[in-house]
Amino acid sequence: MPATAKRILILHVRAGVGHERAARAVEAALRSLDPSCEPIVRDALEFSSPFLRTFYASSYNRLVDRAPRAWGFFYRQAERIPATGFRQRVRSSLLAAGCRDFAAAAARFRADAVLCTQFLPAEVFAFLRRRGAIPVPVYCAITDFAVHPIWVYPGIDRYFVASEFSAEQLRSTGVVAADRIEVTGVPIDPEFASQVGMEAARQELGLDLDPRRLTLLLMGGGFGWGPMESMLQVVLELDPSVQAIVLAGRNEELRQRLAKRARGQEHRIKVHGFSDRVHRMLEAADLLVGKAGGLTSSEAMARGVPIIAVRPIPGQEERNVDYLQESGAAVRAYDLDDLQYRLMHFLSDRADLERMKANARSIGRPRSAFQVAESILTRLTP
Fold first, then answer.
1. 3-class state of residue 142 by DSSP
2. What is the pLDDT of residue 192?
3. DSSP code, position 4
4. Which end of the chain offers a freer environment for a tag, N or C, measured as fewer CB atoms within 10 Å?
5. pLDDT score recorded for residue 8
């Protein structure tokens, strides 16, 4: 290994899939910018107690899937806990006790820096950094547009945030100095930094190339959350000129049900499971229907694709939708009738759709992963 090679430990948690996607995006950007660099991506729960490994991510995933309103309640209650104060210090101490191997992991990997793309490792490493147990810088990439207090800790050396709005929220906490905040965008796959054009993307995906056809991308995130089957049914009942790509994520049973529902319409409805071609699918699409997670929303904005957010998860997704609506790049569908109305509106008013596309492009940051990687590498260069 060259003497100057830089080793960056990048930690995520598999609560949803967005945090890992952000970590992988920075990993790819680091390797592209500096081939000698050695990014090391790990699920932070590998270095936690058996209890946390067993219940932390799975509890979140089950709660969001089965009782989203309960998750929203916990999210809002946690917003009331100050970023500094007794309750936060107690929580950090208890969490650090359940993650005793974090410092040892950083030492074992000989990390020159640590990047966290999820709040659990950010909280623990900030706690350790403040106590001198971690001698290397600790960075954090916040993966939503709104900054929840659970991300905010004085021990983080530098924050990478989604937008100027996010930066202002972080500054307003009084915990993080302005010179430790950098607006990069949420780190997304470096593939979003290049384009082939809408026509080529549609051809690659087997779609009709007529630009007058409204082309939708229906997504329920990595696990196929949300009313995907009902959303598809709404699309099937629209004018047959509408075509759609439907992503079921890693939910194979859902993919099969969606494919069955679309039977006979395969020429205009393309059903997929998990895909590494989301960058191409978004390039082919006029509208994204479904998820409003931080990563998905950032990917859509990078391609200039507005969002119809269907039943966003209470908490962080609702906050993301609020920001995107205020930016003129998204609308919310409160139920399936509302979704049908929104889609029919865009079918009849393409000028409004084009306006929203321009708004999305104006806040998109397709090079976000490169910006995060460049910032880290610059700070590690003597």
1. coil
2. 97
3. T
4. C
5. 98
Q: Which of 50, 193, 220, 37 is nearest to 115 (CA)?
A: 37
Identify whether 148 is part of a domain.
yes
Quick check: is 359 in a domain?
yes
Q: What angle do CA 128, 133, 139 make, to 5 degrees?
A: 55
Look up the domain containing 306 and give its range: 194-363
Q: Are residues 14 and 149 in the same domain?
A: yes
Confidence of residue 88 (pLDDT cuts 50, 70, 90): confident
Tell me the two tokens of residue 76: 């809002």
Mean pLDDT for the stretch of residues 59-65: 71
Is residue 23 within 8 Å of residue 117, measured between CB atoms?
A: yes
Quick one: which of 302, 222, 299, 234 has its CA closest to 262?
234
Contact 218, 245 (CB under 8 A): yes
Total domains, the chain: 2
The amino acid that residue 360 corresponds to is A
Under the banding of pLDDT at 50, 70 and 90, the label for residue 224 is low
Instruction: Identify whether 27 is part of a domain.
Output: yes
199 with 162, same domain?
no
- Dist CA 206 CA 281 (whole Å): 11
User: What are the helix (H) ranges across the chain?
Assistant: 18-33, 50-66, 68-79, 86-97, 102-108, 119-130, 164-172, 198-204, 228-236, 252-261, 278-284, 294-302, 316-326, 336-348, 350-363, 368-380
Q: What is the mean pLDDT of the chain?
A: 91
State the DSSP code for 269: E
